[in-house]
Structure formats: C-alpha cells, structure tokens
Amino acid sequence: AINKYNEVVGQSDYEKHAEIGGGPRAKRAFVTTIGNVSTSPLLGQSRYLDDLTMGSNNGALATNNQYRIIDATEINDAGVISGTALYCDGGDDSQAINAKCQGGAQGVEKIVAVKLVPLNGADSTNIQPRPVDVTTIERQGGSLGWLALGLLTLLGFRRKQ
User: What residue segments make up the domains of the chain, in order of their start?
Assistant: First the structure.
C-alpha cells in the first residue's frame, strides 16, 4: 500500500530472537517513506504505528494503550491507515511497545480491525516513541566450579585405591 506521498505501510518482526521451539517473533505495523521524502508529513522517518498512537500531550487518546498494531494494510492520500491490532481490555501493563496484556495471561487479547486517522495539525515533531520494557535476568548457580573439580579429583583418587 502506497499513497501520493510515497508512504508505505506494512508489517515487520519486532523481536529479533530466533524462532526456536515454534515461538514466533512479535509483529508490529510500520509506516515509512520511499523515494522523495520532502513531500511526506513524516519527513522520511520510519515509524512503528504504535509510536503514532503514543502519548496524551499530542492529542492521542488514553485508550490507545489498549491497542498494539500488528499489521497495516492500506494508507490513503489523507494519511488514513487501515490495519489489524491486538486489543487488551483495560490497556496493556505499561505504555511500552513490548508491554504485556494482563501480565502475559493467555487468551485475553483479541484481534480487531483498526482505522487510524491523523490528528489535525500534528506533524513528525509530535511523535513520541514508545519506550521498551527491559527485564534483567540474573543467572545463579550455573557453575559448580572449583567444588566440582575438587569432588571429581577425590572420587578419582578413591577409585584408584
């Protein structure tokens, strides 16, 4: 889908991990400009559509946090975008792009059709990127180290006797 401003919408993989054990990567919808960027309202920026719905100080609705846009299928010359989103009743756990719905509970998100209409007077300076939730994983006890080496040595001496 392309409009007269050379803006293209579509879907891309948001996560970068390998698809191991049948777990697919999370998808997000995007908008980007190809060719001449001087006519585009986005000024040549590539954006996740979730970034365009972020924030309340730029006129975006607080209920926008209930949607994570996973696919965009069409954009017209007025900038209206049609697509598909995951809907979480009550909103995701945070404003982050990778936030979970109700703590990651299975089966609570619904797939819905969405229509994104540009805000009057908004431009690329009003876009607030969604933050990313970062989780740290501490690994403990992954190595027995010197204790295991000592035990193996003692067992080895004992077998020789």
Answer: 7-160
Q: List, in order, residues 6 or more apart from 104 with CB less than 8 Å away.
A: none
Strands (E) located in 2-77: 7-13, 27-33, 47-48, 67-75
- pTM of the entire predicted model: 0.72
Distance CA 44, CA 26 (A): 25
Which amino acid is residue 26, in one-letter code?
A
DSSP state of 35: S
For residue 65, how far is the Cα from the chain centroid?
Answer: 13
* Tokens 């054990």, residue located: 21
Decide if 130 contacts 96 (C-beta within 8 A): yes
Q: Find out whether 133 and 66 touch, Cβ atoms under 8 Å.
A: no
Query: What's the CA gap between 70 and 81, in Å, rounded?
Result: 13
Residue range 13-71, pLDDT digits in tens = 887 777 777 778 888 999 998 887 767 777 778 888 888 887 655 555 667 888 989 99
Token pair recorded at residue 129: 């990127």
Secondary structure class of 52 (helix, strand, coil): helix
